[in-house]
Amino acid sequence: QMQQLQQQQQQGQQMQQGGQLQQQQQLYQELEQRIQHQALLQHQMMMQQMVLQQALQQDPRGLQAQAAAGQVQQLALLLQLEERKRQIQQQALARSLGS
Asked: What range defines the domain where residue 7 resides?
């Protein structure tokens, strides 16, 4: 009977460890998605800058160029915020994995 009890305890511990591993995998997947999202944002911003440059070439004093510049500035701010958020999340992840 003692043996059976020990076996049950071991099984319980293994299940707990399995759960923790699953949690970590989920965290990694979430990070992966965020990084892909980040790359997409950066790509969009580069495209915006190209549009801005074209607008400036075609119509240097145009309102078009000013509007595009405003959009690029907004995107740049967004990217900075995203980057900051990502750093905070990575630190949190590192802490949770470290504990």
From this structure: 2-98
